[in-house]
Amino acid sequence: MTPRLALLILPLLLSSAPAMADPLADQVRADLPSLMNIYRDFHSNPELSMQETRSAAKLAAEARRLGFEVTTGVGKTGVVAVMRNGPGPVVLLRADMDALPVVEQTNLPFASRVRATSVTGVESGVMHACGHDTHMTSWIGTARRMAAMKNEWSGTLVMIAQPGEEIGVGAEAMLKDGLYTRFPKPTHAIAYHDAASLPAGVIGYTPGYALANVDSVDILVHGVGGHGAYPHTTKDPIVLASRIVMALQTLVSREIDPQQPSVVTVGSFHAGAKHNIISDEATMLLTVRSYTDETRRILLDGIQRIVRGEAIAAGIPEDKMPKVTIRDAEHTPATFNTEKLTTSTAALFTSRFGADRVRRTPAVMGGEDFSRYWIADKSIESLIFWVGGVPKDKWEATGGDPAKLPSLHSPFWAPDAQAVIETATEAMVTAAMGVLGKG
Ligand SMILES: [Zn+2]
Ligand SMILES: [Zn+2]
Predict the structure, then answer these.
(1) Residue 45: how many other CB atoms lie within 10 Å
(2) What pLDDT is stored for residue 121 in this prediction?
(3) 93 C-alpha vs ligand 1 centroid, how far in Å?
(4) Rounded to the nearest whole angstrom, what is the distance from the C-alpha of residue 100 to the centroid of ligand 2?
């Protein structure tokens, strides 16, 4: 075909697309200019965890306008929007609202210049570096479609906007504030997350365990400080802590079943102040990841045993044993996608988007407190899926190599937001209709 002929024929080919009537895709596309305005507003005005008041107010106002019964302040800043529409299942759709303490470096015209102080008192730049702005925007897109399609479904829709995902406390806060008692309790819970490891508009799903148990562990190693020239008069906590770091490596390599994924990472190691002083303490901060409860238990018990054992080997007296603190309040349990909902929704996605846009993806070692909605009642069918956000040109230029692409939480993460929002809105409506649709 000559280029000239192609120019003539291409628009004809493209314009023939609507012949396959797809009202949902058409309606989402028609709503995109409005949704992109909302997205840019969310992106320019990010809020840190448990401080999402402006975002919550926007979502609540939109849901009210659409006829949902809206309750705000659930779990501090969470929003619950309920639409009762006859007998049937109760579907919970969740978006998270919080941004991160990251100084944005995307150079987008609507990049955030916001600075704020976190609940732990640290002041920093704030950025939607995890893409929760796309989640909130498609939450609105989904609410609009579900309200408009009310005569096509029966049941109850519970749309929630959750605070504090990044610090792992928001889902728990909403549940503790009566999410399952003050509001209709879900039979199905569905969410998505934008993905920095998939090309824009491609959906990923993982049956079974999809995201990991995340535990944070602090280790404080005591020693006996002294002069660097007279080590025999000291108990050097740096040498002991180094031994502990090395011994911890055998947990994953020698104590965990090789079929069970796990990670023990010492992410922070601090001790000492000067060349010639042996410090009297060393501190380490660890992240510990797993999928099953059993693997988690082996790792956490093993850390405590190794720390104590190495201290004994180093001759540390009983009253100076290292202190291991497992930060239970920050624990995020593993996220599990139940088989029935995952299989049926993946089939719907494949028929809507085509097999080239729907992939089964491996589980990841990241964490998500979406897990809590299922753990609170395991009779609930639950699914979280991925919607790729890597702009097509970047994906092709790098061959999708994760080492060459910004990850989630990067100050450079600039997804193809339009592709994420369009795909995610269609996907969330499709998933909800798969459960609630009249047929
Ligand atoms: Zn995140
Ligand atoms: Zn996130």
Answers:
(1) 17
(2) 87
(3) 18
(4) 9
User: What does the mean pLDDT of the chain come to?
Assistant: 95
Q: Is 124 strand, coil or helix?
A: strand
Distance 88 CA to ligand 2 centre (A): 31
| Per-residue pLDDT, 15 | 46
Q: Name the pTM for this structure.
A: 0.88
Ligand nearest to the CA of 370: 2
End-to-end, the C-alpha distance of the chain in Å comes to 44
Kindly give the distance from the C-alpha atom of residue 94 to the centroid of ligand 2, in angstroms, as a whole number.
12
Distance between CA atoms of residues 200 and 36, nearest Å: 16
User: 161-181 pLDDT, tens per residue?
Assistant: 999 999 999 999 999 999 999
Residue 167 alpha carbon to ligand 1 centre in Å: 9
d(CA 6, ligand 2 centre) in Å: 42
C-alpha separations of 220 from 217, 263, 266, 315 in Å: 10, 20, 13, 16
What is the pLDDT, as a whole number, of residue 55? 98
pLDDT at residue 299 is higher than 80:
yes
User: Strands 155-162 and 78-85, how do they pair?
Assistant: antiparallel
Of the bound ligands, which one is closest to the alpha carbon of residue 193? Answer: 2
Pairing of the two strands 381-390 and 188-199: parallel
Where is pLDDT greater, at 77 or 7? Answer: 77
Specify the pLDDT at position 20. Answer: 64
pLDDT on residue 12: 46
Taking the CA of 407 as reference, the closest ligand is: 1
Q: Hey, which residues does 40 pair with through a beta bridge? A: none
The length of the chain is 439
Ligand 1 centroid–CA 367 distance in Å is: 9
Query: Angle at the Cα of 189 (from 50 to 57), degrees rounded to 5?
Result: 35
**How far is the centre of ligand 2, averaged over its atoms, from the C-alpha of 334 (Å)?**
15
Q: Which residue has the tokens 């732990």?
A: 120
With contact defined as beta carbons under 8 Å apart, do 383 and 207 qualify?
A: no
**Which tokens in the block code for residue 91?**
């579907």
